[in-house]
């Protein structure tokens, strides 16, 4: 087992990474022998790991309850969140109740937000069982639910007491979700660590095969990079925004396709390629590095083209994004591999990169169907 | 205009108290000329004061929007909260949008919680227009909505940037709501300041008549007491609980009657009398002081008896209260007038005080109707 510390003063916490952590006494630090625990999980994960976590927690709590939610991004909404509150209130759970998020990013985001709100805040622990959650969403305290008009629009910054990433749980993950997790790992290399990016180029096949040492290294290095950024800017007033590399475009893809059609990591994969395209067009990134990024995304099993939606739809969807700063859309861009900057980009360069990577050029104000080859020509666009 | 400072380090803020503040340039400190403001108010307050606030804010913001909610505690729920999110997202409001809560405690609690959650936190300002909100709920950062199984169960600690208490707005307040606000003023004297309690005994009639100098003094002294407590314990890990004097019983009354039947302040009025009864039975409060409290509550126009519900219903309702600490219900009790302690109380003393102040003794396990005189005998109860 290896440990990464997230340094946030009184809210500092450990991320424990290793194999077989659900079967060991990993949870003694958060024990509350007189209080209850509530495991929040979903119908896919519950049959696999809920029993193991239940047994691991029972020695440390007066009672361990479970709340099993439906599985999927489309359930990251208020009615489903409210089922957690129902479970807590039906059993008259008090302020010392600890919530355990057992599952992927959706379960982690919802359980964390429920913990932030229940009686104005109860402790919670992340037990991520997907690669994406282990390397990204379980770390840093961003919690939220979706609103019909925007993803993650309703939430809180609320830190867990502990994160336990058992890499053995990844063995039951569909390959598509392994790839989705790799998107965030690639992102961490791209924005902060060129050496790690190179290591990923060397080890991509081993990662996709879930070789233990490779996975532990990639999870640990990702968590270290994210923890260092979060420690400097917990509530995203500045630096933390670099973690959104690929996400402005990615969120637009997810919303444009309808939540749940593309996995978050898939959308981020294509989004990073588009953002690298903008970086290249602004002269921040050399063409060879943009190609390296696209190639690594492709080798991770991720899409490198956005879905074919009208260009204007993408532009509309990006206006409402949270990085929208009083009307000016700023993008996280690469300044060489391993470096990131936050910068407003001219709309023609954004448009050009979108068209180069799959967006459909609108022939007329009316919505056109799938673009003809001519309408999908890449390159610069006259305004 | 007088100012009370709430000392919370980076989150410190001012409470401005005086007459005609909506008509003056009170809001320059929170100006964001490139960002939007959203006034959240209700159908009762909007016709009275929304236009004045709109005009006061327009010089300081790029655009000032309004969201008018239905009026009443029964709307302090998720669907109504979501109307604030709808208003923000339909206009693509970004993270610099400032929310203004114009109204009473319900509007303040909901607007504050919406501000805490929207994009994981946007600034907000309290503009309380009821006495209860001016002396209590607008100060200290407690925000929440109700759940069918409990009041204020879903919320956040989230501080406003500024509180503006214009005492002129109290002139449109129904007398019943003036009395409800006086309950919290009496509470502040009872738990923290015997001299202020004595001042209230002298000035109660002037307060009920809303005489300017008396009201400003009472609002200021209440805010000072509350601010001092909140500054020491923002998230209610200890001391802050004393502000809940009368509230364990009060919340049980509100829930037992159905939210919105009794005003919060009315329930707190009767709740304080019952809590004083428990204090007296524990030997913490002399009988003369308990009588003084009951008399002041009565002179404020507030009920001194709880509504006639079965005793067991009260006991059930108090179990789920937030002050419930791993199964042991603790009460805020008076240790002399002007002092408060947090202590678990034997159930027979709680029962005795409830029966002395209106609860119906249950004759059998089946629910009885309104109690006979015999079943309502006050005094100690054999277990």
TrEMBL record, chains A, B:
Low complexity: bias regions: 363-375
Keyword Lyase: yes
Keywords: Amino-acid biosynthesis, Aromatic amino acid biosynthesis, Cobalt, Cytoplasm, Lyase, Metal-binding, NAD, Nucleotide-binding, Zinc
Cofactor: Co(2+); Zn(2+); NAD(+)
Keyword Transit peptide: no
Pathway given in the UniProt record: Metabolic intermediate biosynthesis; chorismate biosynthesis; chorismate from D-erythrose 4-phosphate and phosphoenolpyruvate: step 2/7
A GO molecular-function annotation: metal ion binding
Residue ranges constituting the 3-dehydroquinate synthase C-terminal domain according to the UniProt record: 181-324
Family matches, as InterPro entries: Dehydroquinate_synthase, DHQ_synth_AroB, DHQ_synth_fam, DHQS/DOIS_N, DHQS_C
Chief localisation class: cytoplasm
Catalytic reaction equation(s): 7-phospho-2-dehydro-3-deoxy-D-arabino-heptonate = 3-dehydroquinate + phosphate
Subcellular location: Cytoplasm
Top EC class of this enzyme: lyase
Domain of life: Bacteria
3-dehydroquinate synthase N-terminal domain location: 67-179
Cofactor note: Binds 1 divalent metal cation per subunit. Can use either Co(2+) or Zn(2+).
GO biological process terms, semicolon-separated: amino acid biosynthetic process; aromatic amino acid family biosynthetic process; chorismate biosynthetic process
GO CC aspect terms: cytoplasm
Amino-acid positions noted as binding NAD(+) in the UniProt annotation, renumbered to this chain: 71-76, 105-109, 129-130, 142, 151, 169-172
Binding annotation for Zn(2+): 184, 247, 264
E.C. code: 4.2.3.4
Residue ranges of the region described as Disordered: 362-383
Function statement: Catalyzes the conversion of 3-deoxy-D-arabino-heptulosonate 7-phosphate (DAHP) to dehydroquinate (DHQ).
NCBIfam families: aroB
Family: Belongs to the sugar phosphate cyclases superfamily. Dehydroquinate synthase family.
Protein name in the entry: 3-dehydroquinate synthase
Organism: Thiomonas delicata (Thiomonas cuprina)
Gene: aroB
């Amino acid at each position: 087992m290896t440990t990464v510390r997230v340094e946030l003063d009184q809210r500092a916490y450990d991320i424990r990474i290793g194999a077989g952590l659900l079967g060991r006494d990993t949870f003694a630090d958060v024990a509350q022998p007189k209080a209850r625990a509530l495991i929040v999980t979903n119908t896919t994960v519950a049959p696999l790991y809920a029993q193991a976590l239940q047994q691991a927690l029972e020695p440390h709590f007066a009672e361990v309850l479970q709340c099993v939610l439906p599985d999927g991004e489309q359930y990251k909404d208020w009615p489903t969140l409210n089922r957690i509150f129902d479970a807590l209130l039906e059993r008259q759970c008090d302020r010392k109740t600890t919530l355990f998020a057992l599952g992927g990013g959706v379960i982690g985001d919802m359980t964390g937000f429920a913990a932030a709100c229940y009686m104005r805040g109860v402790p919670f622990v992340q037990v991520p069982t997907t690669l994406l959650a282990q390397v990204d969403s379980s770390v840093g305290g961003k919690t939220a639910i979706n609103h019909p008009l925007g993803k993650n629009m309703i939430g809180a910054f609320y830190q867990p007491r502990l994160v336990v990433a058992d890499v053995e749980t990844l063995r039951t993950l569909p390959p598509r979700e392994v790839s989705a997790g790799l998107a965030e790992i690639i992102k961490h290399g791209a924005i902060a660590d060129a050496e790690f990016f190179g290591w990923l180029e060397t080890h991509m096949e081993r990662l996709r095969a879930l070789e233990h040492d490779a996975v532990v290294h990639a999870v640990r290095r990702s968590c270290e990079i994210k923890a260092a950024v979060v420690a400097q800017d917990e509530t995203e007033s500045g630096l933390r925004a670099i973690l959104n590399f690929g996400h402005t475009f990615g969120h637009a893809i997810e919303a444009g396709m309808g939540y749940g059609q593309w996995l978050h990591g898939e959308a981020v994969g294509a989004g990073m390629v588009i953002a690298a395209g903008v970086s290249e067009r602004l002269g921040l990134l050399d063409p060879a590095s943009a190609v390296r990024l696209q190639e690594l995304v492709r080798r991770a099993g991720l899409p490198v083209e956005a879905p074919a939606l009208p260009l204007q739809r993408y532009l509309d969807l990006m206006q409402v994004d949270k990085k929208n700063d009083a009307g000016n859309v700023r993008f996280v861009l690469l300044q060489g591999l391993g470096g990131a900057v936050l910068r407003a980009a001219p709309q023609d360069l954004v448009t050009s990169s979108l068209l180069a990577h799959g967006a459909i050029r609108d022939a007329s104000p009316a919505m056109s169907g799938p673009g003809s080859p001519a309408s999908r020509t890449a390159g610069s666009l006259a305004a």
